[in-house]
Design goal:
Number of helices: 10
Strand order of the largest sheet: 3-4-5-6-7-8-9-10
Order of helices and strands: EEEHEHEHEHEHEHEHHEHH
Number of strands: 10
Length: 272
């Protein structure tokens, strides 16, 4: 697995992680719940570490906490979640709940979700980082309409991480956001890395470029993820899945040869 440095610490992070939105909002009684354990095991044994969740993802934090406690994996996961509420005390209460649900006494990355009340939550996150309760502080958004607000926050304060939408067919961050993150030493996590589903539906049935196997890709999802990984500003991508088969496929995008500039440009032309 290819790794990238977290600029604020130099710690190496594997470039392929796991998003828990949707797929992990399940109870143990559901038929597909056991497959989530296989997904987590496959991620960690395949060299990935980042598991990203949020209080807004229904039962996802709790499911991840339950399953990781049962698995007792040898590889230590990099747990990332978010605070997503208004008000200082409400934020503290929500984050304390995340510790309980994830069954951990330390969260690797706490992010202010969609910049909700970020100026209020940031001092608390910095205090908890200083005390060792969390290791990194970040902000997130998932939509291009908020890029101006994201840019303003990055200019105003120093964060360890930004989680933002970036995909082969959603490249708005390339203009200002990614260069600013490189300038300010902010690690970047890509959410919605497969374009929210429409990208793959448009590519379905189309032949892969002739050079795909040379870079270790045998499917469009792998090429779409490798497109992101090949950008040096990207630290980690977090495709979401509850299917072990797709987890295995996603992991392959994090190894082998990165795409050249010309190969990336060809993919951009192919998706229009």
């Amino acid at each position: 697995m290819i790794t990238r440095k977290i600029p604020s610490s130099g710690e190496l992070l594997p470039v392929i992680g796991l998003g828990t939105y949707g797929a992990f909002d399940q109870k143990p009684a559901t038929a597909s719940y056991p497959a989530l354990s296989d997904v987590l095991q496959m991620l960690l044994e395949g060299g990935g570490t980042v598991i990203d969740s949020s209080p807004m993802y229904g039962r996802a934090e709790q499911a991840a906490g339950e399953l990781l406690t049962e698995l007792k994996p040898r590889a230590k996961p990099f747990l990332a979640t978010k605070v997503w509420t208004h008000g200082r005390q409400a934020g503290i209460d929500q984050m304390e709940r995340s510790f309980q649900l994830l069954q951990t006494d330390r969260i690797d990355l706490m992010q202010i979700h969609n910049l909700v009340d970020w100026r209020i939550h940031l001092p608390v996150l910095r205090d908890w980082k200083a005390k060792g309760r969390i290791r990194y502080v970040g902000i997130t958004h998932y939509s291009s309409y908020a890029f101006d607000e994201v840019e303003a926050a990055l200019q105003a304060e120093q964060f360890d991480f930004l989680q933002i939408n970036y995909a082969l067919d959603d490249r708005g961050v390339e203009d200002k956001i990614l260069p600013l993150c490189r300038e300010k030493g902010v690690a970047v996590i890509c959410n919605r890395p497969l374009g929210g589903g429409d990208l793959l539906s448009r590519l379905k049935g189309r032949p892969l470029p002739g050079w795909a196997t040379e870079v270790g890709c045998t499917s469009w999802p792998q090429l779409a993820l490798k497109f992101l990984v090949s950008n040096p500003a990207v630290t980690c991508v977090i495709p979401g899945t509850g299917n072990p088969k797709y987890m295995a496929e996603n992991l392959k995008a994090g190894s082998g040869t990165l795409l050249s500039v010309s190969q990336r440009q060809e993919l951009i032309r192919l998706v229009g």
